[in-house]
Amino acid sequence: MSPLLEAEGLHKAYGPTTALAGADLRVHAGEIVSVMGPSGSGKSTLLHCAAGLTRPDAGHVGYDGQELPGLNDVRRSALRRREFGFVFQFGQLVPELTALQNVALPLRLDGVSRRRAERRATGLMDRLGLADKARSRPGELSGGQQQRVAVARALVTGPRVIFADEPTGALDSVAGEQVMEMLTSAAREAGAAVVLVTHDARVAAYADRGIVVRDGRSTERMAAR
Ligand SMILES: Nc1ncnc2c1ncn2[C@@H]1O[C@H](COP(=O)(O)OP(=O)(O)OP(=O)(O)O)[C@@H](O)[C@H]1O
């Protein structure tokens, strides 16, 4: 089976700093892949290039038969909006909107009616243990609850790949485990693949397999379970 997402030979420099020097990432449909490695090794850059957020200087990124760097900005951002979900470390929710409105936002931006978007958002919030938080604003939620809102928002469009960059980086270990349990079980239920950048081996243990990035190059971390 060919991978759903395949990044090969990625190079990226920021001025004199080499962030990627020939990194690869392959993700099959429904697979959870961890990306580990020391600070500054290029993990986030690899995730951003694979997700079409950053254009690599060289290398290839294929998603479901399309070459991402070859798409124009409009088509690339439409593909990102529909096919990909994102969860970052913190600060990603819109503070003025309620939790429910935050979760529904990607659908609203895609032209879905408020009623339909909020119905779908409500179902996901229930799934993520947030049924009673729909009307709360992000500032009224704990860090773990905010990350679960972010996970619900990442899943709301029914993406095929979720990119999670240190999703538990700002949480204590109990809240972090709860977020990881919910992220991975909800993704598996939805059949979405997950690319999971983390420093934490306990977080990486939720993945099916992993890669390690060092000095901008990647190696396989372990065989598939
Ligand atoms: N926008 C940018 N402008 C300049 N340099 C950058 C930029 N983004 C990343 N870098 C540099 O590229 C290198 C790789 O950064 P990257 O964020 O990919 O590493 P990382 O492994 O995710 O690090 P961390 O674990 O600390 O988040 C670093 O040296 C970083 O300083």
Automatic annotation (TrEMBL):
InterPro entries: AAA+_ATPase (IPR003593), ABC_transporter-like_ATP-bd (IPR003439), ABC_transporter-like_CS (IPR017871), ABC_transpr_LolD-like (IPR015854), MacB-like_ATP-bd (IPR017911), P-loop_NTPase (IPR027417). One of its GO terms (molecular function) is ATP binding. It comes from the Bacteria. Keywords: ATP-binding, Nucleotide-binding, Transport. One of its GO terms (cellular component) is plasma membrane. Residues 5-225 form the ABC transporter domain. This is Putative ABC transport system ATP-binding protein. It comes from Paractinoplanes abujensis.
